[in-house]
Specification:
The complex is a heterodimer of chains A (about 140) and B (about 80).
Chain A: E1 2-6, H1 12-18, E2 27-34, E3 39-44, H2 48-63, E4 68-74, E5 76-78, E6 83-91, H3 94-111, E7 114-120, E8 123-126, H4 131-138
Parallel strand pairs in A: 1-4
Antiparallel strand pairs in A: 2-6, 3-5, 3-7, 4-6, 7-8
Helix pairs in contact in A: 2-3, 3-4
Chain B: E1 2-7, H1 9-15, E2 19-23, H2 31-39, H3 44-48, E3 56-59, E4 62-64, E5 75-79
Parallel strand pairs in B: 1-5
Antiparallel strand pairs in B: 1-2, 3-4, 3-5
The chains are: A alpha+beta (about 140), B alpha+beta (about 80).
Chain lengths: ~140, ~80
């Protein structure tokens, strides 16, 4: 399992290959989040961020068969089309890989301490949290 | 007791500081109590911690509810609802 919070970009192909080497792995589901049309700065809480993501990955591992998992989240200055976040889950079968990947992403949205500030022509503003993100995380409650 | 308080994102900007070391009176021993204590400073503090403002908290880097206890040496963080991903 690998959790990284970094300024640098990542390579989806390399990350997927890295968790696919075990011959028992039959499925890898991955998600990449991108910056849409606005330049932004991402702030985080060093230390807590990594711990919070690790806890989410552990929860996923207790509900689904997760053979390996990589989560990378970037911070700092990001431009339109830049990659922000990667979640990749390796499992024996696709059901577990899909579910764990979506669960991790939904929980990360509401539990990992990141904040986006958008830079528009009129000035900079902090992005407001969305109720839809809380609802997405809520539906995984047992 | 002495604690460390951190502020992030819009809260940090509004309060004009990333955090501070704080000596708490003994009757303040929960996250909710600390929030009220900070709000009572007035000015930017009263709007940043206004009751209708969505503020989340963490104790020693773990998300915490208002009833969560505070003890000496804790690292308490206040921040707006998260918007990563």
């Amino acid at each position: 399992m690998r959790v990284a919070v970094q300024r640098e970009d990542f390579d989806l192909g390399a990350e997927v290959r890295a968790i696919s080497r075990d011959s028992k792995v039959g499925a890898v589901a991955s998600f990449v989040g991108l910056v849409r049309d606005v330049r932004m700065t991402l702030e985080h809480y060093p230390g807590m961020t990594e711990n919070a993501i690790r806890k989410i990955v552990d929860q996923a591992g207790s509900r689904w068969q997760v053979m390996d998992c990589t989560v990378i989240h970037r911070y700092g200055e990001l431009a339109p089309n830049d990659q922000i976040v990667l979640v990749a889950v390796a499992s024996a079968h696709r059901g577990d890989a899909f579910a764990a990947c979506e669960f991790i992403m939904d929980y990360l949205k509401t539990q990992a301490p990141f904040w986006k500030k958008e830079h528009r022509a009129g000035g900079a503003s902090w992005v407001e949290a969305k109720a839809a993100d809380d609802e997405a995380a809520e539906r995984w409650k047992p | 007791m002495k604690i460390k308080v951190l502020f992030f994102a819009s809260l940090r900007e509004q309060l004009g500081r990333p955090g501070e070391e704080l000596e708490l009176p003994p009757n303040i021993d929960t996250i909710g109590g600390l929030r009220d204590h900070l709000r009572a400073r007035g000015g930017a503090w009263s709007s940043a911690f206004a009751p209708n403002r969505a503020v989340r908290a963490a104790v020693n880097q773990d998300m915490a509810q208002p009833a969560a206890a505070i003890k000496a040496g804790d690292e308490i963080a206040f921040f707006p609802p998260v918007t990563g991903g």
